[in-house]
Amino acid sequence: MDIEELQTFVEVADAGGVSPAARRLGVSKSIVSRRLARLEADLGVQLLARTTRGAALTEAGATFRDYAAKACAEIDNAKETILPAGELRGRLRIAAPLSFGPTHLAHVVADMARRHPKLHIHTCYTDRFVDLISEGYDCAIRVGYLQDSNLIARRIGPIHGKLVASRSYIEAHGAPETPEELLAHEALMQGTESWQFLDGGRTITVRPQGRFKADNGTALVAAAVAGLGIAYLPDGLTDVHVEAGDLVAVMTRYPPPPAGIFVLRPPGQHPARKIRVLTEMLIECFGQMPPAAQPAR
Predict the structure, then answer these.
(1) Neighbour count for residue 269 (Cβ, 10 Å)
(2) Which residue in 118, 180, 181, 208 could disulfide with 176, CB within 3.0 to 4.6 Å?
(3) Are 168 and 215 within one domain?
């Protein structure tokens, strides 16, 4: 067996099928199938049970998957150790928010690819929650407030946001002055999230209600401009509309608590050098951005 066969097996196991694993690896399904067949032949056991829905791990496959993943990680670390200083190679899979990734992050990723021509970078821009471990990502860029998890997070910069509404909405419904008054208004939200505000040294948490929801910050901006309600959005998405007069900041006496932009990675002793390099480039980028330009969703 060789390292490509082990890596392919881990990808198929984590992706749940040959087709998604082939997309992750950037190879054809036939190549994936041949690698799996050679690995199973070398081991003399069946690792995967093929089904109409994909591939499921056998008992032997479930046991072998963890050992194979550790072996792949150790080999990757060994390769990084002996590479010339500054040179990166291999593959880096990144998950980033769609709301700000293409405009605020893509140029950093492109610059990293330019500096390291032997490195293959695959970036997925989506506002849905990505499970790094089960979906096979090396790291994720997340913004806002982190929830408890077993992932390791590194803060790369601050983000700033505020409540906004259109003038037409304020003329029709008024503007809330306190968090309690906010509960009587139409809130534009991603789901059922709670909103937090600062009252001096005290944090106030409210659970607003509204009939319009979207899992993308840009869509919520459009709804706010259309006068559908009040949105809690990052300055990076709303400043241009505030300057144009399409949106107005409301309830400014109760600002949201400071949030951040983070690089998250699966748990492990040491981050891969490619993740460290990406993190350093992001810190340099976001550390130089003025507060109002930094995204928060």
Answers:
(1) 6
(2) 181
(3) yes
Tally Cβ neighbours within 10 Å of residue 213: 15
pTM to 2 decimals?
A: 0.68
- 3-state percent breakdown (helix, strand, coil) of the chain, nearest 5: 45, 25, 30
| Residues 67 and 137 placed together within one structural domain of the fold | no
CATH number at residue 111: 3.40.190.10
Residue found by looking up tokens 């700000």 in the block: 100
Could you tell me the maximum CA-CA distance found in the chain, to the nearest angstrom?
74
Find the angle CA(120)-CA(80)-CA(14) to the nearest 5 degrees.
55
pLDDT single digits (tens) 183-235: 999 999 988 789 999 998 899 999 999 999 998 889 999 999 999 999 999 89
Residue 50 contacts by C-beta under 8 Å, 6 or more apart in sequence? Answer: 18
Tens-place pLDDT, residues 102-139:
988 999 999 999 999 988 899 999 988 888 877 778 89
Paired residues of 125 in beta bridges: 96
Amino acid in position 195: W
Number of domains in the chain: 3
10 & 133 share domain? no
Q: Tally Cβ neighbours within 10 Å of residue 133.
A: 12
Report the chain's terminal Cα–Cα distance, integer Å: 44
